[in-house]
Amino acid sequence: MMKKGAESVFSSNSFLEGDYSCSGLLRIEGRAKGRISVDGSLVIAEEARVEAAIKAREVVVAGILVGSIEAEKSIRLTRTARVKAKLFSPVFSLEQGALFEGDVFNTPNQVQD
Amino acid sequence: MPEGLRSYKKREKLFYVKLVAGTKAFFGGFVSIPRRVVAWLGAKTTIVFIPHSEARSRRFGISRFLLGLASLFFIALLGFSLFATTRYTAARIQLRIAQGRAEEARAAVDELRDSAEILMGSALRFESKLAELLTAGASANLKQSAIPVEQALKAAGLASMLSMPATGGMAFREVERLKALSAYLDSALPSLDRITNTVAAQKDILSEIPNTWPIQGGIGHISMYFGQNEYPFSAGQWYLHTGIDISTYRSGDPILATADGKIIDASYTAELGNSVTIQHSHGFITRYAHLRSIRVKKGQQVAQGQVVGTLGNTGKSTGPHLHYEVHLGTSIIDPLRFLNVRKAVK
User: Fold this and answer.
1) Measuring CA to CA, how many Å separate B283 from each of B208, B262, B280, B329?
2) Does A38 fall in a domain?
3) Are residues A111 and A57 in contact, defined by beta-carbon separation less than 8 angstroms?
4) Which residues are bridge partners to A31 per DSSP?
5) Which of B54, B57, B58, B59 to probe by mutation at the A interface, max A CB count within 10 Å?
6) Among candidate residues B280, B271, B266, the one with its CA nearest the CA of residue B338
7) Do B288 and B306 form a contact (C-beta atoms < 8 A)?
8) Which residue of B has its CA nearest to A45?
9) Which residue of B lies nearest to A61 if distances are taken between CA atoms?
């Protein structure tokens, strides 16, 4: 049950600090710090550096992340990801080459689709 | 200073101030409008491709002017390609139609060529026949033996088609030959006219010579020829048959006079049965014997083709047949010689 939302991008020279929430797709390419909640997908690009508590439906991490992720559907760490966080999700995927340090908690799938 | 003048001055000043400002604004427009247009056109738009995965995003900064230009270019390209495709398709269809027509035309040409070949063949046969005819005429007239074909044709004013030059290739050769044939036929007309005249002149003579088939409808067959034959009433004995016997396997077929003439005898004898004898011009006499009935009287004038009696089995006969005799002066001759004359002329 995906809500239709806009695509938002923090490009590589941007810096975000504080609470941020949006719906649709959020793509972070710059630096972010704080609390981020997305009613939709979150992509942390390869060049991004994020230090945040994240809530989202679906998260893909390719850059650097410190903090925590609560995903309703899935979390995927690509081979370029550098992650030090607590992960909450029904589905995890960790590609070869990804660096991960932290805890993984399996939560029941809350998304019916 | 009076009060009225002051207020007037004030208004005057206000008017001038407004005038200057308006003029400035008006002329300023000339400068600022193009500048604004350039600014509007120069404004940049960024086109960003945002992947929903970790793949790199891509962005393109482009001014409105270039964007417009690019759109125009694409629209033009699209229009042109549409136009070109349409033209190409139309051309292809026309080509197909043209090919079909060419195919038909080729078939027609082939057919025409075949027809022309057949026509040429007929023409050559016609030429040789005409040459034969002319040669026969010439030799008959000049009391000469056979003249070569070429010479006969030359004498008649006709160049032989056989000696025609075969130049050019394919259809052109056919066309040339057809033209030559046309010319040849035109040149053959005077000769044919002469022949027609001759034939017309001979027609009267032909009707005076016993040269038609004596039975109505041209039916019957020759059951005994002229000349030496075995005597039908006593086997092994030879005798001279003085005419031809024509049988139709039945009695009653009308017997026709074979030329104009006068009936000199119409009577019954034991030998010939009912017989009719006709005296013709040029010393010809014809006799029709073994008739079932006689339809003419002695002294009567008859025309060629007139009925003189019916085929029968009277007299010394073994079955219904016509005995037909031709006399020329005091000699008895073969009737078939004259029958052939008429056939050849026809």
Assistant:
1) 10, 12, 6, 5
2) yes
3) yes
4) A15, A49
5) B54
6) B280
7) no
8) B54
9) B54
**DSSP element (H, E) containing B239:** strand B238-241
User: How many domains, in total, are found in chain A?
Assistant: 1
Distance from CA of B38 to the nearest CA of A (A): 29
Beta bridge partners of A49: A31, A64
Q: Strands A64-77 and A92-94: what pairing?
A: parallel
CB contact under 8 A, A46 and B54: yes
- Phi, psi (degrees; rounded to nearest 5) at B22: -65, -45
Q: Between helices B3-42 and B64-142, what is the axis angle to 10°?
A: 60
Query: Cβ distance B322 to B288 under 8 Å?
Result: yes
Rounded-to-integer distance, Cα A5 and Cα A40, Å: 8
Phi-psi region of B249 (alpha: psi -120 to 50; beta: other; left: phi over 0): left
Please indicate, yes or no, if residue A65 is contained in any of the structural domains.
Answer: yes
Q: What is the pLDDT of residue A2?
A: 47
For residue A93, what are the domain limits? 7-106
Note whether ipTM > 0.95 here: no
> Distance between terminal CA atoms of chain A?
6
Q: Are the beta carbons of A80 and A63 closer than 8 angstroms? A: yes
Residues of chain A neighbouring B50 (CB-CB closer than 8 A): 7, 9, 25, 27
CB spacing of B56 vs A46 below 8 angstroms = yes
Q: Is A37 inside any structural domain?
A: yes
Q: For residues A66 and A49, is the Cβ–Cβ distance under 8 A?
A: no
pLDDT in tens, chain B (346 residues): 678 889 999 999 999 999 999 999 888 878 888 888 888 888 888 888 888 888 888 888 888 888 889 999 999 999 999 999 999 999 999 999 999 999 999 999 889 888 888 888 888 888 888 788 777 765 555 444 444 555 555 555 555 555 555 554 555 677 787 888 888 888 888 878 888 888 787 777 777 788 888 998 888 888 888 888 888 888 788 888 889 999 988 899 999 998 889 999 999 999 889 999 999 988 899 999 999 999 999 999 999 889 999 999 998 888 899 999 999 888 888 888 887 655 544 3
DSSP alpha helix (H) spans, chain B: 3-42, 64-142, 149-155, 170-208, 336-345
Give the distance from residue B58's alpha carbon to the nearest chain A alpha carbon, in angstroms.
11
Return the closest-CA partner of residue A61 out of A110, A39, A94: A94
B residues 25-54 lying closer than 8 A (beta carbon) to A = 48, 50-54
Does residue A18 sit within a domain? yes
* Residue partners of A103: CB distance under 8 A and separation at least 6: A86, A87
